[in-house]
Amino acid sequence: MDRPGRSIAAGRKGLSDEEQLTFAIAEDRAFLTHNIQDFAPLAEIYFQHNRSYAGIVVARQFEKGELLRRTLTLLETLTPETAANTLRFI
C-alpha cells in the first residue's frame, strides 16, 4: 500500500509518458509533471481524439516549497470539472 502523499509514479519508472498518463486516468487523477516537451503534445493528441483525462499540470523546476505552494494555489481554484481535459501551467 502506498504511503499518503507518495507519488503515483513511484514504482512506475521506465514506463512511457502515455503509460503514466493512462495510469493517472485509470486512477481519476490529474498529472503533475515538469515534462512540458512530451506532455503538451500528448494533451493535444488526447484533445484531437476526444480522449478524457483529469488534467495535466506542468511546472518549471521550482524549489519543493514553491512547487507545493503553486500547486495548492491552483487546486484551490479548480474543481474536477474545470481541471478535466486541460493543460495548465504553474
Descriptive report:
- The protein is mainly alpha-helical and 90 residues long.
- It has one domain.
- It is 46% helix and 10% strand.
- The protein contains four helices and three strands.
- The protein has helices spanning 17-26, 36-48, 64-77, 80-83; strands at residues 31-33, 56-58, 87-89.
- The protein has a three-stranded parallel beta sheet, covered by helices on one side.
- β1, α2 and β2 (56-58) form a beta-alpha-beta unit.
- The longest helix is centred in the C-terminal third of the chain and has 14 residues, at 64-77.
- It is globular, with a radius of gyration of 13 Å.
- The N and C termini lie far apart (30 Å).
Output mean pLDDT.
88
- Taken in chain order, the helices and strands follow as HEHEHHE
Specify the biggest β-sheet. 3 strands, parallel
Helix/strand class: mainly alpha
* Through-space gap between termini: 30 Å
SS elements, strand count = 3
Q: Specify the helix fraction band.
A: 40-55%
Note the total helix count: 4
Number of domains: 1
Envelope shape: globular
Give start-end ranges of low-pLDDT stretches: 1-6
Strand content: 5-15%
Strand order of the largest sheet: 1-2-3
Radius of gyration: 13 Å
Helix and strand arrangement:
Blueprint: H1 17-26, E1 31-33, H2 36-48, E2 56-58, H3 64-77, H4 80-83, E3 87-89
Parallel strand pairs: 1-2, 2-3
